[in-house]
Amino acid sequence: MSCALDKRFGMSALKDALIVGIKNKTLTENQIAEWCTVATNLQNGIGLESALNFVTDQDLLKTLTRITGSFIADLDREFCYKIVQNLVEWPALQLFRKLVEGLPEGDHILHVLTPNYDMLFEYACDSSGIPYTNGFFGGIARKENWKAISQAFLEPEKICQGRKIKTVYRHRKRVHLYKVHGSLNYFFHLNTVLENNAWMWEPPDFAERLMITPGLSKFQILQKYRQELLQSADIAIDKATNFLFLGYGFNDSHLEEYIKRKLIKQACHGLIVTRSTNPRIEALLGQADNLWLVCKTGAPVGEGTQIYNKGYSNSLKLPGKNLWDIREFTKHILGG
Predict the structure, then answer these.
(1) pTM, whole model, 2 decimals?
(2) Three-class secondary structure of residue 278 per DSSP
(3) pLDDT tens profile 72-82
(4) Burial level of 82, CB count in 10 A (0-12/13-18/19+)?
């Protein structure tokens, strides 16, 4: 969804930012050797995720995280002001508004998992009044506390019981946001994971950004911060029976393993809405009975949508309809 707003949020732009940023850093011989391997692979057309598999030096990883954080922070600041002034609209805003409003009273939480570092989702929700939380609670420097968050979303409501008026407390409909690769405003400081918006664009030297950069090293780092980043998301996935994927290319095996099992083994319902398909998506579609794909047609001329499920021999083609665009999808499917 961030790339749908601006392609600079994508891997290609991050790759360029890392190449430029690393030139201004003083590296050890081992770090130079590791980065040269990365650069060679990038020049040979290897993707950034795979190329960064060759980085194991912990200090070099921290340098790459700082460059990544600085690059995303500049973009984030640019779009923060545009979103809050209603100069641009986050592409999936109307979809989320309808999903939250449509939550039943017995299931008042929409669970949202994202690997994105930026704060575009949060800005969009704040500007439009969609209640959300990422589980962090407190003042300027917040700590994870889902129990306190749950209490904060209770609203009093007066009801009649015979001749008496009784006050009951109901949970507000809301989004639970799980930023499983960290966030611009997540930091590790004083042996604790904190959320601090005051630090996110220009962090102090004493606070370490908590952002999981591409490459094999992310598995090790994710295990270190599993409780803060993955535990609550794992619980939500375990309980879920319906999944919606927005612009997701299925390139994070550590996030998808259990979700794929639920789609394939448990035949949970799933819908992928994305501009372009890829071999990973197509392989999953071939295994999951109740998984549907909405994407752009492969036609070189003109635009259109194709819809696919393994239960049908051919995809449904809709010329002139761009349902893979989440704005058009919301408008035509949900009436938004």
Answers:
(1) 0.92
(2) coil
(3) 999 999 999 99
(4) middle
